[in-house]
Amino acid sequence: MRDLTDNVVIICSIENVDPMGVHTGYTITFAINPEDGEVVVIEMNPRVSRSSASASVATGFPIAKMAAKLSVGSTLDQILNDITKKTPASF
């Protein structure tokens, strides 16, 4: 998730993370170079699964709530974690 000042937060990573050059037949979202650990987005599936939404609530950064706040002009450094009540999303 990215805000209008170009801050980014990754709320939940997707389980299908494969080394560079390996294709499982499913949509690959991230590639990891096994030589140096560099992570590159090579294809993004914008669909949010139920498990991603559950994980976002469990971490204190609910996707829908944060998206609503960003859509009205808030930035990630203004959105506090629902669990800690003090850690910003831009932490």
UniProtKB/TrEMBL annotation:
GO terms for molecular function: ATP binding; carbamoyl-phosphate synthase (glutamine-hydrolyzing) activity; metal ion binding. Keywords: ATP-binding, Ligase, Nucleotide-binding. PROSITE patterns: ATP_GRASP, CPSASE_2. Residues 35-72 form the ATP-grasp domain. One of its GO terms (cellular component) is cytoplasm. Pfam families: CPSase_L_D2. It comes from the Eukaryota. InterPro entries: ATP-grasp, CPAse_ATP-bd. SUPFAM superfamilies: Glutathione synthetase ATP-binding domain-like. One of its GO terms (biological process) is glutamine metabolic process. This is ATP-grasp domain-containing protein. It comes from Nepenthes gracilis.
